[in-house]
Amino acid sequence: MRLTSIHTYPVKGCHRLDHDGAFVQPWGLVSDRRWMVVDADGVGVTQRETTGLVGLRATVRPGGLTLRADGQPDLDVPEPTGGDPVLARTFRHREMSVPAVAAGPAADAWLGALLGRPVRLVWLARRPATWPPTAASTTPATRSASPTPTRCC
């Protein structure tokens, strides 16, 4: 098997970043889908329902990320510290929620203006105690991707 490309999505459902190489952690590629746009119920917003996500470009930097989109000023978003965790789910039909931390009102307002609807940006900051999760594990995955393992051959 030959690996022909490596992509990460700093914000789930948004434009991808292409890489020549990437570091793999037990729970997936570094910086892949650690941020997510959620609705008022904490459910991930998808391109299927909100096509404006297609134009959202996120660049990871140490300690946070920068959001870019046509017609919007760039927004620098620091990794949130403190604050009460909010529960987020990747899809409405998925029962498992993961603890996340809200990025704050500036990011929410910026994304709301871009997408034309109220949303929140959350960061999946907590690392899993064990990986992969087992049926008996109560520690949820801490990225908003599918719970399947990352495979590199």
- Count of DSSP E strands? 12
Low-confidence stretches: 129-153
Shape: globular
What percent of the residues sit in helical stretches (DSSP H or I)? under 10%
Order of helices and strands: EEEEEEEEEEEHE
What would the keywords be for this entry?
single chain, 153 residues, mainly beta, three-stranded antiparallel β-sheet, 1 helix, 12 strands, 7% helix, 27% strand, disordered C terminus
Present the secondary structure layout.
Elements: E1 6-8, E2 11-12, E3 17-19, E4 24-25, E5 28-29, E6 35-38, E7 57-61, E8 64-68, E9 75-78, E10 86-88, E11 98-102, H1 105-115, E12 120-123
Parallel strand pairs: 2-6
Antiparallel strand pairs: 1-3, 4-5, 6-12, 7-8, 8-9, 10-11, 11-12
Describe this protein's structure:
- It is built from one helix and twelve strands; from the N terminus they run βββββββββββαβ.
- The radius of gyration is 15 Å and the shape is globular.
- It is 7% helix and 27% strand.
- The protein has one domain.
- A hairpin with a 2-residue loop joins strand 7 and strand 8 (64-68).
- The strands form four sheets. It has a five-stranded mixed β-sheet, with helices on one face. A three-stranded antiparallel β-sheet has the order 7-8-9, with helices on one face. A two-stranded antiparallel sheet has the order 1-3.
- The N and C termini lie close together (6 Å).
- 29% of the residues are buried.
- The model is unreliable at 129-153 (pLDDT under 50).
- The chain is mainly beta and 153 residues long.
- It has one helix at 105-115; strands spanning 6-8, 11-12, 17-19, 24-25, 28-29, 35-38, 57-61, 64-68, 75-78, 86-88, 98-102, 120-123.
